[in-house]
Design a protein that fits this description.
This protein has 496 residues and is an alpha/beta fold. The protein has 15 helices and 14 strands. It starts with a helix and ends in a 10-residue tail after the last strand. This is T cell activation inhibitor, mitochondrial.
């Protein structure tokens, strides 16, 4: 009865994937990474330095994708659950064609898709198609395919192909759409997710405890030895990675202790590049060798001098703008070196000197502003500070600040009140659930955190006892056992 269905099924699959897909060999892990290079180039967090929230979303989604790809290569991978991912995709030559969802003025767009594939090749093709990226380069990775045009592979069809359920009933094949439909019909709830993932989180956290103690010991020893204010990490690296970085710094301290003591009183941040940050933190690039770190510590006195000149420049700008305070907010602004930030301030200061704005002295005291290079019009942030473009028209800037000054003061007052409430709720939640650690990602606002904590306190969640809980925008168990839940988690039973 169904003997004719297999050829038809093959024909339909050829409409979805390139014509060579069915006769191609499986990809290796290294080949899959190579095939996804256009995708990584379009979503890599380093290209979203001036957009912290989008950068964070891509970082988290890449971590989850990495886990998915690793699990695909393990025995029993056919039982993988559907994984929903969101990426902000930059506009590139490959994905800037007509007919696509328009990019924002910032040059990127959000792409959401659900992975439910059973091998690396189909996964790679699905990801590239979902992001409207070419798949032509993949054919060169396969030695068993013939070279034919791949025009039909550029995009997934708008109308998905779906078999009659009787086919799966009689053949015994599993309907690939069934789980996806169930995912779309059912919303993940906090209780159900914790039921499914709580034991895994407890196991990972327990396994990481010895390394966590080692990390604390290394951090304390180095902080005392070098008389540092703090040691931090810009990225969400795992505990083992952080310990390795501290061991590396410790070995350098044994070799050049007097040089490293130049950092006395500073905060050291492990990040992507070496230098001094806009706020005066010592940045150690994790890909740099000891020689580069040593040169940085040797140059710290000159950096301290530049830092003093920068602070003087901020005061001069403040004086010209009626006493408004110039600040740099790490959580909201792109990561800039001290030199880059000084250059930005200098350009803005020279523009102000050429176009003197008649602000009354100290009339704007108590207000704050941050300087941006990627904006063209001033704006008022919900937290109460002004976002000022470095190339802003001084005349328009004066009118904007004067008309928004009172609203800015109201926003700042509301922010301070909200912060007090947020801290109280964090403390109450930590105590009620006996959490080992309770924190949020920078992209989660105080309003969102307050709402989340209020609803958490209404629940009975025994699985949370002793856990390290992070409020985020997604569900995930991190490699060291930290549990991430979205701030707007759903309550109750999942309903079809």
């Amino acid at each position: 009865m169904f003997c004719h269905l297999r050829p038809v099924r093959r024909l339909c699959l050829e409409k979805i994937f390139p014509h060579w897909f069915l006769s191609s060999r499986a990809l290796s892990g290294a080949e899959a990474v190579n095939a996804l290079r256009p995708f990584y180039f379009a979503v890599h967090p380093d290209f979203f330095g001036q957009h912290p929230r989008e950068r964070e979303v891509n970082e988290n989604s890449l971590k989850r994708l990495s886990v998915y790809l690793e699990n695909l290569q393990k025995p029993g991978s056919k039982s993988l659950k559907p994984t929903q991912l969101t990426f902000y995709v930059r506009e590139t030559e490959q994905n800037s064609s007509e007919g696509q969802e328009p990019f924002s003025t910032s040059g990127f767009r959000a792409v959401k898709f659900t992975l439910h594939t059973r091998d690396l090749l189909s996964t790679v093709l699905y990801i590239l198609n979902s992001c409207s990226l070419s798949v032509e380069h993949i054919q060169s990775l396969n030695t068993n395919v013939c070279s034919q045009p791949l025009k039909e592979a550029k995009r997934m069809p708008d109308r998905p192909i779906k078999w009659d359920k009787s086919y799966y009933y009689f053949t015994g094949f599993k309907d690939p759409h069934e789980d996806l439909e169930q995912v779309s019909r059912m919303e993940t709830t906090l209780t159900s997710w914790l039921d499914n993932n709580g034991k895994s989180a407890v196991r990972k956290l327990k396994n990481s405890l010895p390394l966590r103690k080692e990390l604390d010991r290394l951090k304390d020893d180095l902080s005392n030895q070098l008389q540092l204010s703090d040691i931090r990490w810009q990225r969400g690296w795992g505990i083992a990675h952080r310990c390795s970085q501290l061991h590396s710094l410790g070995r350098l301290a044994q070799q050049n202790l007097e040089t490293l003591k130049n950092a006395k009183g500073c905060t050291i941040i492990f990040t992507d590049r070496s230098g001094m940050s806009a706020v005066g933190h010592v940045m150690l690039g994790t890909m740099d060798v000891h020689h580069h770190w040593t040169k940085l510590f040797e140059r710290l006195p000159s950096y301290f001098d530049l830092r003093r000149r920068l602070m003087l420049l901020e005061d001069q700008i403040s004086y010209l703008l009626g006493g408004i305070q110039v600040v740099y907010i790490e959580e909201l602004q792109p990561v800039l070196t001290l030199e880059e930030y000084y250059s930005l301030l200098d350009v803005f200061y020279n523009r102000l000197l050429k176009n003197r704005i008649p602000f009354h002295p100290r009339s704007l005291r108590g207000l704050k502003m941050i300087l941006n290079s990627d904006r063209y019009a001033p704006s008022l942030h919900e937290l109460g500070h002004f976002n000022i473009p470095s190339l802003c028209d001084p005349t328009k800037l004066q009118w904007f600040i004067l008309t928004k000054a009172q609203q800015a003061r109201d926003n700042m007052k509301r922010k301070e009140e909200l912060k007090v409430i947020e801290n109280e709720l964090i403390e109450a939640s930590t105590k009620k659930f006996s959490l080992g650690k309770f924190y949020k990602e920078p992209s989660v606002s105080s309003i969102q955190m307050v709402d989340c904590c209020k609803r958490l306190l209404e629940q009975s969640l025994p699985y949370l006892r002793g856990m390290h809980l992070c409020i985020s925008h997604f569900y995930s168990v991190m490699q060291d056992g930290d549990v991430c839940i979205p701030w707007n988690w759903k309550d109750g039973e999942a309903v079809k």
